[in-house]
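quick one
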Amino acid sequence: MEDKPARRRLVLVPASAQGHISPMMQLAKALHLKGFSITIAQTKFNYFNPSDDFTDFQFITIPESLPESDFENLRPVLFLLKLNKECQASFKDCLGQLLLQQSNEISGVIYDEYMYFAGAVAKEFNLPNVIFSTTNATAFVCRSVFEELNANNVLAPLKDSKGKQDELVPGLHPLRIKDLPTSKIASLDKILELYKNTVDKGTASSVIINTSSCLESSSLSWLQQEGLDIPVYPIGPLHMVASTSTSLFEENKSCIEWLNKQKQDSVIFVSLGSLALIDINEAIETALGLDNSNQHFLWVIRPGSIRGSEWIEHLPEEFSKMVSGRGYVVKWAPQKEVLAHPAVGGFWSHCGWNSTLESIGEGVPMICRPFSADQNVNARYLECVWRIGIQVEGELDRGVVERAVKRLMVEEEGDEMRKRAVSLKEKLRASVRSGGSSHNSLEEFVHFMSTL
Ligand code: UDX
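structure w/ uridine-5'-diphosphate-xylopyranose:
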């Protein structure tokens, strides 16, 4: 009997956070459907336990020895810098082992832009490697010019809380200095160090981005023509290309039954992703503002997301009364299903890139309350470029919350945004259908990888 030729195998390295694991697993699924075998190499942090969707995949753990507490204590920027240093040697051992076992099969490594150690290791083995940007093209552009902006003193206002952060960044219209992807909990020097590494293409043969040209054509053109001299493939939104279960937390589906009882476009969905933290006072003001808005709301309060609390135990008694009338609170929701529900008319979000894509993909306009990094960029684009979002800036009090919710859910302004969101949804859907730009990009990428 003739041996079947081995499928070409790709080693995929996700970053250890929900918002990065999901798009990587969606990409893995899409590439598997195109005929590749898949190995997922992950660290122990936020370990993704594969569901039945991934039975054909190989999962390996990169044996780093960072203490579990580092993930919480260092927060993203410092943690990622340390993780990359720590993982380089252990991933080299891992990949070496894989190559010993299946050297003829492995045709390349695809790594999250924040797991750049994998690119360095692939280079040592002369393996083709590809950067996967799980955030958006505009954030990639910002990170690419960050050093130059710093050298030209444009970032100076970020070092001083009284600096003029409302000024536009030269060449990055409509981003203001405060919209740049920075973080209040890391020093500018450390952010510069991290970003320099994430945009260093090293020996990468191409960059794939979880975006669509209908959302970010000028940023993509800049990357293609000026920023990078390797092919750039916008192949997203990947959740529309390969739908699969990627949640790290248990989803409470009872909220769908609650939504079934609500009127069309009557509910505001409130969710701040998997990492953002708020103070108790912000939680209380949000509750009061939602209550005063007279709108129904579905609120995800992730355990540990209110500083100093396990969940909502430190909130005053009135909190339960406030939410029990028009509200419904869960610890984790089936977010994509929620956004697709006809009762949901708006999304109060931290504007992580996945949440942004998922909301646009269902034509749901947003209230934008970014916390850090690319979320600032996404919020600005939602408000000023796609014009389907209202950004809430500065101190959060009940009046601000009530006003924003009414503008989006009750007033004509919100209706206009909803219409624009629906029209953008159609463009996004068309881009992943046969003949669409993201569909074609994925085909080109698969062809490119098959010829390496
Ligand atoms: C992180 C960064 O914060 C974000 O800026 C970056 O763009 C991606 O990585 P995160 O903060 O978790 O991600 O936000 P986001 O990108 O929105 O991803 C959250 C994911 O969790 C989404 O896919 C969302 O559907 C899912 N989710 C969230 C749920 O499934 N249920 C919930 O209740 C909340």
